Amino acid sequence: MLTFDEIRHNNDINTYITAADHSLAALGFTEHSFAHVGKVANTAAYILTTLGVDEHKIELAKIAAYLHDIGNVVNRIEHSQSGAVMAFRILDNLKMPSADIAAIITAIGNHDEGTGVPVDEISAALILADKSDVRRSRVRNRDKTSFDIHDRVNYSVTDSNLVINDKKNEIRLSLKVDTEYGSIMDYFEIFMQRMLMCRKAAEKLGLDFKLSINEQQLI
Question: pTM surpassing 0.90?
């Protein structure tokens, strides 16, 4: 089996991730490089491990998470689909079994809120892990006076935690928001569709999705 560790140390893959992040930087997007894909991989693994999913699927979820944004090297628009095609070629050339490739490209191709659907456990975990990565350190712009709404929202989040409860029937995203930089309404303006997608992903895993901001439950 091709492992996550092998993928993570593959020079070609890391070149695509770096180039994709450079493209997004040019467009003014937040960080989508190794910090993001690494965090998403760890969070997806946490979700599936907590729910008792087998180790093979967890490994596939981590690989999908690491590769999920490479399509941005082509274009931001429909990057999930172009990323899935890129991942297919990469993994096929690395002789990964077709069933494993299918699971990974399904997750990558369905992670974007514009067109994606949580079709299985791996894709659901990727969606939750990706959409919950909101944090101040993702903001590239250091000039607070020129923040756009995406900068304001990400910079305002001083703490973010995604946790499954002990009964394993609920997953909660808890955020601490510094309203000096962005309001709670700003958050919902750009993230509502993502939060609704998280709810569908949670349902696929047999969980209820909850969102709390500054200790107030909003979803």
Answer: yes
Determine phi and psi for 157, rounding to 5 degrees: -85, 105
> What contacts 181, CB < 8 A, 6 or more positions away?
144, 147, 152, 155, 156
With beta carbons less than 8 A apart as the criterion, state whether 198 and 189 touch. Answer: no
Q: Is the pLDDT of residue 7 over 90?
A: yes
Torsion of CA 65, 139, 201, 61, to 10 degrees: 10
Q: Is 10 exposed, middle or buried (0-12, 13-18, 19+ CB in 10 A)?
A: middle
pLDDT per residue as tens digits for the range 66-124: 999 999 999 999 999 999 999 999 999 999 999 999 999 999 999 999 899 999 999 99
* Virtual torsion, Cα 135, 136, 137, 138, nearest 10 deg: 70
8 Å CB contact between 58 and 107: no
Sequence-ordered alpha helix ranges (H) in the chain? 4-8, 11-27, 34-50, 55-67, 79-93, 98-109, 121-131, 149-156, 184-204
